[in-house]
Design a protein that fits this description.
Layout lengths: L32 H7 L5 H27 L9 H6 L2 H7 L5 H20 L4 H17 L3 H16 L2 H8 L1
Length: 171
């Protein structure tokens, strides 16, 4: 085609409001609040989108840095190997997209790091707070978020059980 996209600026508007079906109707709005508020800083649609992406990136970065802090120990940089391998280019891309995937992926990473921290030290306040905060974010990001949180809590409980009790469940 040799047709330009010039007509996109003059797209027709509906004469009256219409109802459009959507698959995100069941999503909890909480994950959209921070990025929605950030769009108010924009002066046009492009800058609003950039502000929303920045807000999404800041939330994801805070969760990823929390994960780094949770798994870091005195053994040195090798304690960070799991986080380094988990933060793939796709995770970085997802972290700056305006969707519920951004906080969901970062909160999942943070929750896993908190589980590791609690496995190493069951009395860790940082692990407890990290697990709680990331579980909340993970729980509100998607309709099935609470199911993933429940599975994560079961995982943490299994990690914290004495070996004999865990072996009894497995066999």
């Amino acid at each position: 085609h040799n047709t330009s996209a010039e007509c996109l600026d003059r797209s027709p508007t509906a004469a009256r409001p219409t109802v459009q079906p959507t698959y995100v109707g069941s999503y909890a709005p909480f994950a959209y609040v921070p990025v929605g508020l950030a769009t108010r800083l924009g002066t046009d649609p492009t800058s609003a989108l950039l502000w929303a992406r920045l807000a999404s990136a800041v939330i994801a970065l805070a969760l990823i840095l929390t994960a780094v802090g949770l798994v870091w120990d005195t053994s040195g940089p090798t304690s960070l190997l799991g986080v380094v391998l988990a933060v793939t280019p796709m995770v970085i891309f997802t972290s700056v997209v305006v969707s519920t995937s951004s906080p969901e992926v970062a909160a999942s990473l943070c929750f896993a790091a908190a589980a590791i921290r609690l496995w190493r030290n069951p009395r860790s306040r940082a692990g407890t707070y990290g697990a709680g905060a990331s579980a909340f974010i993970l729980g509100v990001a998607r309709p099935l978020g609470p199911v993933w949180v429940l599975l994560g809590v079961i995982l943490i409980a299994a990690l914290l059980m004495p070996a004999g009790i865990f072996a009894a469940f497995v066999h």
